[in-house]
Amino acid sequence: TEDINRKYIKLRYKLLPYLYDLMWKCENTGAPIIRPLLFNYQNDKNTYEINDEFLYGDSILVAPIVEQGMRQKLVYLPKGNKWIDFWTGEEHNGGKYIIKDAPLDTCPIFIKEASIIPMAIEQNYIGEK
Question: Which domains are present in the chain?
Answer without folding.
Answer: 32-112 (2.60.40.1180)
